[in-house]
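Aim 2, interim progress. The first record below pairs a target sequence with its structure tokens.
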Amino acid sequence: MRFTTLVDVDSLAANLRAPGWVVLDCRFELGKPSAGENAYSNGHIPGARYVHLDRDLAAPIGPSTGRHPLPDPAIFAAKASAWGVGPDSQVVVYDQGNSFFAARAWWVFRWLGHETVAVLDGGLAAWQQANQPLEHGTPAETTQHFLASPNNERIVDTQQVLKSVHAGDFTSGAQRLVDARGADRYAGENETIDPIGGHVPGAINHHYARNYRADGRLHDIATLREMWQRTLDGTDPCNMTMMCGSGVSACVNLLALEHAGLQGAKLYPGSWSEWVRDATRPVAKGT
């Protein structure tokens, strides 16, 4: 069975040592870049390798980029090969439980042409709640050959977003730009990460946390589909673009859409942190 959006704890446990299964630990804290790696050292799912948001799932910040530019495909391919990911691998990614960082890894693999990648539903928290084991130490390297084939139809850049703003595409409903940040940051309130608060004119707010149940797992498919149909409001998912602060939490929304069978939405990787690099770009505030 191929897992392409979510995998549950029981399925992972049953296949943990199966040939071709690769598990990647993506735990991270935005304010403490070493926290996830330290947590990995203190215990992780057996066989898992560690993947760092800043080093592995993003390129270095440039003079005009957001906080998490997309990784260079060739560099990422070399790393994925060292992690043991080959063309037929079933990749499972997890984080501490909110899928925030695991979803970014899921999306990067999909962007680069690898479809058999799934997020562990509920993350490490769900694994531990099921009394599954942890291990210490780094597993032996089993190099494969990962070939990156970027599908840039999945992404939208800042100039495309700016063109759509000027054309009124977002306000008319011809396209939807969906901001995954919390409602306060979207409204321009309590901004503590980026130098300017607010949102791209015409963008609507759909906080990534809405996709989760209270236990940290994603809602069932029917609930997700109903929720996202309201946000789509008649717009084809192919005309929807996801953004957030730096292109990370937006991937949770993309994961939820894909799991709900609403395929085709794109990512604006630069997101708000890139948008506000240029003071001439318009900013909206409020709800």
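The second target in this work package is listed in the same format:
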Amino acid sequence: MIVRTSADGTLILINQTDHARLAGQFAAHWGNSTFELPRRRESLLRAATFHDAGWSRYETEPSYDVDRQATPTFFQVPNTAKHLAEHARAISWLSGIDPYAGLLMSMHRTGLWRNRYGAVKTPAPLNKPSTEPLVVEFIEKHEQIQRSVSQAFSKDEIATDYQMLQFFDVFSLAFCTKEFQEGTFELVPTGYGKAPGIALRMELVEEGVVKVSPFPFDAAGLKVGFLYMELAPKTYASETEFRIAYFAAPHKYREYTFV
């Protein structure tokens, strides 16, 4: 879960699965005369939309620290055996539907602890490398599976699609983890066999309207957004009390137009 705190103390909560759906929308509208359409488009859209499905269980029981009066944002959640098992389950689930999408999802998960395998230059990663034994074991196990599964596909396609997936992820996070800020994203692939990629720049034209240069989507005026919840400033006496407020919070929608 993505956790933000407004100036007045209001909590803004965005489920990882909702952030992923925003990434999937960017993937669905990717491509024009400058940016090549994904060759395995359905699989890449599936991977982008469900890349954080391993967070589904956590979203049924988000943690809350009564002493600190805080709930952790996603990269602060401990890598427990239960948590890692949910990511493994999600990878297995998607792989059973679409092996290529499952491969990309698996690479995304292990890559978060591997500096995204060098696919992203900016922005700086939120997840840090980990030497925790459970994480190391998870990475080694899934990278071994990745090597086996990848033999059935083109190395160039895998590398390019993984890089696109990373862009969709960090681009979505740029809108979900904070209020909009102008910035640059690199490296962003323009097509297959065209390494290493280029830089995209985004800037605010007016409230809710973002200019992206060069423009990577299928139509100017693209409107996409994400669901979020707001919890008024309050202290909670227990984790259960916090969770009840979380479940009761109405969902709101934040929309942006891209030009």
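Residues 2-258 form one domain. This observation will shape the mutagenesis plan for the next reporting period.
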